[in-house]
Amino acid sequence: MNLEQLRGFVEITRVGRFTLAADRLHLAQPSLSRQIAALEQDLGADLFTRGPGGATLTAAGECLLPWARRMLSDAASARRELDELAGVERGRVRLGATPTLCISLVAETLSDFHTRHPAIEIGLVEQGSRRLLDDLAAGELDIALVTASRPPDDGRFVLEPLLTEELVVIASARSALLSDERAIGLAEVAELPQIVFSSTYDLRAATDAAFDAAGLVPRVVVEGAEMDAVLRFVERGLGVAIVPAIVLLDRPGLRAVRLQTPALTRTISIARRTGVTPTAAGAAMRRAIITTATTLAARAEATMRLATG
User: Fold this and answer.
1) Most buried residue, 99, 127, 182, 282, by CB count within 10 Å?
2) What is the CA radius of gyration of the chain?
3) Which tens digit of pLDDT belongs to each residue from 256-295?
4) For residue 167, which of 220, 211, 206 has the smallest C-alpha distance?
5) Closest to 176 measured CA to CA, from 119, 245, 240
6) 25 lies in which domain range?
């Protein structure tokens, strides 16, 4: 068993076809097939069932997959740590974050981080919190920014609470939808035309739960949008949206009001795998995230104070 065989095995499980996997790995398809055949012979078990619909994992393949991912991740970590013996200026960080954080906290963090550490390669994955934790557990991420205050009760993760974000109601600065409100109740928000996020967003689940708990049905005019689209639709006056206050920074085309009690908040945490020592580059990224989050949180609070008098 070698890393090239495992890399080919994992890529086939990812894309479902030998030909496509070979193309992505820049291999000839017969070469990849020989690698897998040698791996199967070494293990004494078939790993895939081949058919017209592609390659599907056998029971043996399902058993091998998490181990293969972990071995590839450990090998990559070993290479990074050896590279970093020369200092933090080298290496690679694999960062995961939710979509709403990618346009605010992550964008600001990476801008500063790249300026300070231009030789460090950054890999970014944008997913919901649950998918990010799955990727983290599989060794495909070094750090994940998730919307949770406590880790799952399985001991696989360490969560470090970073900040608590206030959720606010936004409208176009030119719109009369929020008029001169300084705060608004959830029942009033439900009566306004709303732009709501894709069902894959953690933020969508949180707002849906708040409306359900209050026995309210929001008046939705656009559903299923991504964060960038939500902000643009609101700027154009299509409706209002409930978003983290931090996304308002440097967006003069939007205005916001706070929600009346009970306010809605969410906790952002830095997640990592239990028992895994961060590389020097990973530790530098964590420090950069914490510094940027502190700065942005203070700016967001100042912006809301100005907006609400």
Assistant:
1) 282
2) 23
3) 898 987 788 889 999 999 888 888 888 889 999 999 988 8
4) 206
5) 240
6) 3-80
